[in-house]
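Data availability (excerpt). The following record was deposited with the supplementary files.
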Amino acid sequence: GGAYGAKFLHLETTYWCETYPEVLSYLNTHAERGAVVWAECLDVLVYYQLHGLLRQDLQIALGPDARSAFPDFRLNPSTFKEADYVVIQNRQSGFYTALRTWMQTQKPIYGVKYRKLNLISVYAPQ
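Predicted structure:
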């Protein structure tokens, strides 16, 4: 059943961060210089920045409880509530309680859908 079958069965509708490239051009074009970007999978953004696909001036947020596979990479200590932009792919197991609650109070400023099914969203916290 693909993505809709997964949603129907309460499985992950996306999982392997394959949707992250879809938001890079949005961030590269719209994010202010030096903006802090939080993502549930921060190492994906680090990878894209290291390979020149994400602007070098953008700061990637680590958050207080996160761990990175790139310990020598300079990360910003901001949480998702403090970041300028928040990137969340529709991977339901990543929606821990605080993030799920926060998402209910926010509206995405950009998103990628597959047949009306949300795959990844960018938020600009208020």
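Summary of structural features: The helical segments are 2-8, 21-30, 42-50, 97-103.
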